[in-house]
Amino acid sequence: MKNQFKRNFVRLLFAGIFSLCALNNVSAKNLFEDKGNTTNYNRSAEAGFAEEEFRRGVLSYYRGMFNDAIMQFERALVYLPDENLIIDWLGKAYYRAGMEGSAIRQWQYAKDAGYGGLVLDNRIEIVRERRVTGVDEKLDRFTEAGVFSGTNSENKNIFTQPISVLPNSDGSVWVVCYGSNELILININGQVVRRITGPLNGFDRPVDIIKLHNGDLLVSESAGDRLALLSSKGIFKNYIGKKGRGLGEVVGPQYMCQDDNGNIYVSDFGNSRIVVFDKDGNGTFTFGKKTAGFDGLKGPTGIAVCGDSVFVADSITGAIYEFDLSGNYIDILVKEKTFDYPESMKYYDGYLIVSDRKHVSTVEIDSGIVFENAYMGKAPSRITSAVPDKNGNIIVSDILTNNVYIMAKMSELLGGLFVQIEKVSAENFPNVTIEVRVQNRKRQPVVGLRAENFILTEDRRPCSGVRFEGAGSVSENADIVIVIDRSLYMSGCEEALNDAVRVIAENMTDVGNITVVSAGEIPVVEYKGNSSGLLKFSQKALKTKLTNRPSFDLAVRLATNELINASPKRSIVYLTQGKLDDNAFNKYGLSDVTNFMSNNGVSFFVVQLEQNAIEQELDYIVKNLNGKTYYVYRPEGLSCIVQDILDVPNGLYSFSYKSLLPTDLGRAYLPVEIETYLLNRSGRDETGYFSPLQ
């Protein structure tokens, strides 16, 4: 009886407090409806307790404390089990914690109750589709998602005869214009932001453009019989090669590529051969002439390097031939007459993307099998270049129609963009800052968006004083966590481990902070701070000893937690001999570990301390998180790893605005919405936050 009396007293007291608040603030609006309120008061204790737990959960979510947020939302649901707003937020917390199956279940509960509308429908559909694996998306059909026309609405030329394209990491595209003898830079919305005409005498029928390892640009001039070397900004430096048939000489150079050693390969169409220059622009050798077992190149056009092989497309024979890096003929990859008139050919992740008049095709390097990705139809068209960009599209130049097309997967156009407001900071209310992540349906970040691609509203009304604070993709800083494998397999790898950590630390100078986590039986943070503290790293200083029960999953989750509130560019670098213990995924499954990193913008790189075959699970994580695998003592070294981390596409964008909503002394849930538009695609997200209590 006493306990019952106490419970009733607490309920009456709490209801009285909320009634008093409502009297003091007539504009106050209760967040949750009292659907089950059977008291004589206008506010039940359950609703009040639920609001308080919900508020704590939202604050924990925006601080990156997702496990705490899950517990607080679940406690709120104890008081109001049918409140869809809480259920929606619980799904968000599960999603950011990497537990996508649990997130979908919560969202489905809310959807079945009539909550969420199209925004929630789209979110469920995309997240559910992402969990289906096993389909090679490089072989999907592509269709037109947008077009950058060479003529404006007044039928005046903006550019003429686009022949080659080079997508940049920020979403912009360099376009080589054969007809107007210029190089133009187009942003993601199709606006020309720069024109380059070359040196004083200008370009002379430019054909192709590539980006060299040092960041410089190289443009081939077919009528000028030379290559023009430009800075990354398009400023002319000097010429490479000259007209002729000798070493380092060309006649009508067309397409180009560069190998890992810096050597530049050029299809010398006029001489029916390939000319090779070293990284300094000196001619070294030529190949492609008739030899035993090979009739010789007739009309070399597209060229691409993959590992130790050079692939050359021949526009006359319609075939693709394979050579080694020294120019020795190996074999025919695609038989003759397969293609009508192949031109540009670019290597991408184990495939060759070939432009062939009205077709864009993908060639599997291991088998030579050809898949058609896009067909331009029966209208007049001549595709001269097709290159994948950072957003999962293929950028296509059509010299006949005078257009540059953005080709996207059909599934992308039907489903739109995946937009998620990840963080709202309202400590300085009414000044509010939000961070939003934009991806396509396959988790690939969408880079290069600008202020005009977004519409920001609060409670469906345009926000006041909106400022675009920047994009994560342009940041030159990155924070990393080095996770060190402490399994027994690491015995004997001490020297290699020391070398790897020191090289990474040296290249992280002035880039960002480093955290070191030992993946022992219980993961431990060994170091946190500036990279200078690891320049003399020794594994002897590690607190965690080698064990036969290392917890890879817990170590990766600990590392990810360290990065959630770090720089927009964030990565885990796993130092290992290459094997995983049976206990690697004891607590969290492979998909949960991978999703946790992916859903928080963390990339994953592996440095192998021994030359073993990498475990399939590690390879899966690397491929799904835009990472790479390196051997510690590879000939080119590890110095590029930090730059590779900085080059990972990043779809995080930041905005600030001044809120005009009433706060009810910090108790009001303040809604905010954002819509993203890109060409023919769009996406939307809705969320809310609380201002500081007063």
Runs in which pLDDT lies below 50 for 5 or more consecutive residues are 1-28
Number of DSSP helices?
A: 12
- Rg measurement, Å: 29 Å
Shape: globular
CATH topology of the largest domain: Neuraminidase
What would CATH call the homologous superfamily of the largest domain?
Answer: TolB, C-terminal domain
Q: Describe the biggest sheet?
A: 6 strands, mixed
How far apart the termini lie comes to 38 Å
Oligomer: single chain
* Fraction of residues in β-strands: 25-35%
Summary tags:
six-stranded mixed β-sheet; 694 residues; Serine Threonine Protein Phosphatase 5, Tetratricopeptide repeat; disordered N terminus; Immunoglobulin-like; four-stranded antiparallel β-sheet; Neuraminidase; 4 domains; alpha+beta
Set out the fold topology.
Elements lengths: L1 H23 L20 H18 L3 H14 L4 H13 L3 H13 L4 H14 L11 E8 L12 E6 L5 E5 L4 E5 L5 E5 L9 E6 L5 E5 L4 E5 L5 E5 L1 E2 L5 E2 L2 E6 L5 E5 L4 E5 L5 E5 L12 E7 L2 E6 L4 E6 L4 E6 L7 E7 L2 E6 L2 E6 L5 E6 L7 E6 L5 E5 L4 E7 H6 L2 E8 L5 E9 L14 E5 L2 E2 L1 E8 L7 E7 L8 H14 L5 E7 L4 E7 L21 H12 L6 E7 L13 H9 L3 E7 L7 H9 L4 E3 L9 H6 L5 E7 L10 E10 L2 E10 L4
Parallel strand pairs: 10-11, 32-33, 32-35, 35-36, 36-37
Antiparallel strand pairs: 1-26, 2-3, 3-4, 4-5, 6-7, 7-8, 8-9, 12-13, 13-14, 14-15, 16-17, 17-18, 18-19, 20-21, 21-22, 22-23, 24-25, 25-26, 27-28, 28-38, 29-30, 29-39, 31-38, 33-34, 39-40
Helix pairs in contact: 2-3, 3-4, 4-5, 5-6, 9-10
